[in-house]
Amino acid sequence: MQTVDFKGRVALVTGAGSGIGQATALAFARGGAQVVVNDINPAGGAQTLDQIKALGGQAVFLEADVANAEQVESLIAETISAYGQLDFACNNAGMGGVPAKTADCTERDWDRETGVMFKGVWLCMKYEIQQMLRAGGGAIVNIASVAGQVGYEHVSPTLSACKFGVIGLTKTAALEYAKQNIRVNAVCPGTTLSQQIIGVGERIPGLIEAQQALHPMGRLGEPGEIADAVTWLCSAGSTFVTGQTVTVDGGYTAQ
């Protein structure tokens, strides 16, 4: 767990009700930031809020569906209403997707999954960047995936499609706003030991062990390890870093 100083700063984390998002919200709070916890699951958001307050941190929960433009615009407006500024944003909200091969994926599943994992990232960036331009700068970190760097079979085809797209959006926005003091980067996790993976592992015996074997380190990532990469990309230690993908995958893509 790295030490960062975010006192006097405000961070927004989408999909912060569990997993990587929750760990990232907690990491920002430990660094002294005021945190906006976003999720479509109020129970998960409340749990994250309670954990931040137990640390002595300051946070608010704002429910919003990142696939809905009006809700995202309202999310940013409510962030400013609550804390007066937005310095950092981690666009993490996502979904597991329905496992299917490309030819078997339904249009309904494709539209919903890309709406959250791809359109949702763009919508968040759209309104975050508008606010950061008014404020004179900021840092955005998008959660992509190793599935956005290599093909990734046996999962929903939308996962790779969206995550490749997120990396493209990240690089494009980084170039567009580099001179306006807005840095945009992406973190690409390998398989991470989140509640979702644990739940799937309980239904499919041997899944977690099989995933561990795919990673040269022989284990899955911890949400806090991904959170550390996010907070570093928002910290004073990365002020010359933009348009990059930081891969945190236990060696998966080195093979």
Q: Please give the share of residues in helix.
A: 40-55%
Counting structural domains, the number is 1
Instruction: Determine the strand fraction and express it as a percent band.
Output: 5-15%
Structural Rg: 17 Å
SSE-based structural type? alpha/beta
Which outline best applies? globular
Order of helices and strands: EHEHEHEHEHEHHHE
Largest sheet: 7 strands, parallel
Mean pLDDT: 94
CATH class: Alpha Beta
Number of helices: 8
- The fold-level CATH name is Rossmann fold
Number of strands: 7
Explain what this protein looks like in three dimensions.
This protein is an alpha/beta fold and 255 residues long. It has one domain (10-192, 226-247): NAD(P)-binding Rossmann-like Domain (Rossmann fold). Helix content is 47%, strand content 15%. It has a seven-stranded parallel β-sheet with strand order 3-2-1-4-5-6-7, sandwiched between helices. Helix 4 links the parallel strand 4 and strand 5 (138-143). Helix 1 packs parallel to helix 2, helix 3 runs parallel beside helix 4 (107-135) and helix 4 packs parallel to helix 5 (157-177). The radius of gyration is 17 Å and the shape is globular. The model has no long low-confidence stretch (mean pLDDT 94).
Q: Which key features would you list for this structure?
A:
alpha/beta, Rossmann fold, 8 helices, about 45% helix, 7-stranded parallel β-sheet
Outline the secondary-structure elements.
Blueprint: E1 10-13, H1 19-30, E2 34-39, H2 42-54, E3 59-63, H3 69-83, E4 88-91, H4 107-135, E5 138-143, H5 157-177, E6 182-189, H6 195-203, H7 207-214, H8 223-234, E7 245-248
Parallel strand pairs: 1-2, 1-4, 2-3, 4-5, 5-6, 6-7
Helix pairs in contact: 1-2, 1-8, 3-4, 4-5
